[in-house]
């Protein structure tokens, strides 16, 4: 495919290039395995000496086409689809961490990732130190240890809607000899490409805007190919020293800038197996084909709704980086010049009950756990995802007790606004 194609063209066309007489849509290779004429050929595949398909837990042509499209959108060298966003973040780290290691993560991240890093990884012997991303470089540096293997943040945090200073994080990570991993779920590559700001590995929950239709759970890990593992070989023995499970092959020597991606497939996916189903990959690809159009509409609608909310006397506060007086507006101008996403965080004057009354009065906007979908939807973390926490515990987790997460869809913004207004009149 021609180089330097624009993002919109990549959304529609990257990844699958049909040859003469082949289907124009990505075919669903709904097959566990692939047939070979002789055993020698298959043996070569098992030794990673030849490229090809043999078992869909490792690789599948449908998944590869969709992963290739996402890699092209992010400007990476390789990508791997996973069964969920959770699996993507776990694998992105577990590919370079083991028991006894440590990671540094922003405390402004998705609740599921916060639990994964803070609780579950700990059971595997991997410790995480959470830092306040707005803290000074000097203070964040103090979280690093000799055994630190990665740094992690979210471009736009879920549910807080805070914008990450990616360059600052990349500088800190690199001065400590570790890669920066950024979860780019909310911004999508349409609005931010973290590799352009020094990030090394990008993850997504494709469940959100990439799918966009609330049809499939999925995730992806994308590698920029830029991080020099060998320059920090002592930290990354898994990539820079021989892998016993592949006859002593060394990933960086054999695969160059594809080392990280190859290891993730050949070792982590082989052994842990959270693979995307080819049918789900097909559905994600349908979403990707219109991602550029949907993101523009999400941003346009959300901007209008955020402006309305910020001018309404019943609203206590609004956090949307597209608002000129927002505390993240300067960061947004730098990292998200074309728009951020459809998600707005805001609070109503009153208490938890006021938020519930407003939500229960909505007619068009749905109450769901989901976010970043073509349908407008809403969630009150204090009453739903985080309902076990007291107001104080919520604040410690970086979530205001009155925070309402409004995910603005791509319906007509007149209708969304009318629904918000009529529900406000009922509180
Ligand atoms: C939803 C989400 C995840 C988890 O993804 P799943 O597909 O639900 O497993 C991770 N990160 C962010 C930012 C998310 O919004």
From TrEMBL:
Belongs to the trans-sulfuration enzymes family. The lineage of its organism: Bacteria, Pseudomonadati, Bacteroidota, Bacteroidia, Bacteroidales. Gene3D superfamilies: Aspartate Aminotransferase, domain 1 (3.90.1150.10), Type I PLP-dependent aspartate aminotransferase-like (Major domain) (3.40.640.10). It comes from Prevotella herbatica. It holds the Pfam family Cys_Met_Meta_PP. Coiled coil: none annotated. Keywords: Pyridoxal phosphate. Transmembrane segments: none annotated. Its cofactor is pyridoxal 5'-phosphate. This is O-acetylhomoserine (Thiol)-lyase.
């Amino acid at each position: 495919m021609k180089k330097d194609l624009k993002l919109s063209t990549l959304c529609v066309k990257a990844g699958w290039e049909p040859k003469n007489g082949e289907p124009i849509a990505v075919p669903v290779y709904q097959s566990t395995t692939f047939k070979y004429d002789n055993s020698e050929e298959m043996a070569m595949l098992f030794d990673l000496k030849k490229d090809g398909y043999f078992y869909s837990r490792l690789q599948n042509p449908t998944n590869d086409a969709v992963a290739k499209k996402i890699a092209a959108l992010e400007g990476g060298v390789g990508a791997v689809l996973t069964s969920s966003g959770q699996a993507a973040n776990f694998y992105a780290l577990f590919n370079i961490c083991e028991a006894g290691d440590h990671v540094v993560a922003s405390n402004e991240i998705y609740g599921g990732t916060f639990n994964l890093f803070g609780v579950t990884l700990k059971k595997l012997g991997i410790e995480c130190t959470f830092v306040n991303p707005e803290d000074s470089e000097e203070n964040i540096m103090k979280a690093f240890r000799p055994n630190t293997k990665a740094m992690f943040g979210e471009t736009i945090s879920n549910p807080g809607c805070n914008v990450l200073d990616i360059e600052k994080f990349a500088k800190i990570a690199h001065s400590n000899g570790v890669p920066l991993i950024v979860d780019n779920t909310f911004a999508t590559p349409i609005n931010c490409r973290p590799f352009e700001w020094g990030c090394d590995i990008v993850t997504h929950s494709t469940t959100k805007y990439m799918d966009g239709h609330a049809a499939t759970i999925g995730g992806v890990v994308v590698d920029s190919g830029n991080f020099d593992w060998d320059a920090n070989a002592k930290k990354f023995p898994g990539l820079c020293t021989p892998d016993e499970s592949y006859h002593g092959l060394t990933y960086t020597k054999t695969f160059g800038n594809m080392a990280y991606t190859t290891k993730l497939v050949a070792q982590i996916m082989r052994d842990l197996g959270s693979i995307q189903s080819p049918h789900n990959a097909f559905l994600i690809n349908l979403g990707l084909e219109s991602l550029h159009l949907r993101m523009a509409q999400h941003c346009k609608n959300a901007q209008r709704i955020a402006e309305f909310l910020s001018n309404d006397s019943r609203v206590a506060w609004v956090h949307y980086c597209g608002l000129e007086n927002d505390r993240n507006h300067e960061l947004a101008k730098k990292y998200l010049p074309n728009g951020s996403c459809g998600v707005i965080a805001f609070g109503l004057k009153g208490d938890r009950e006021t938020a519930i009354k407003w939500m229960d009065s909505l007619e068009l906007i749905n109450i769901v756990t989901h976010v970043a979908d073509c349908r407008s939807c809403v969630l009150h973390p204090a009453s739903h995802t985080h309902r076990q926490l007291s107001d104080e515990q919520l604040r410690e987790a970086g979530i205001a007790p009155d925070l309402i997460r409004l995910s603005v869809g791509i319906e007509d913004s007149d209708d969304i606004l009318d629904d918000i207004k009529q529900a406000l009149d009922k509180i």
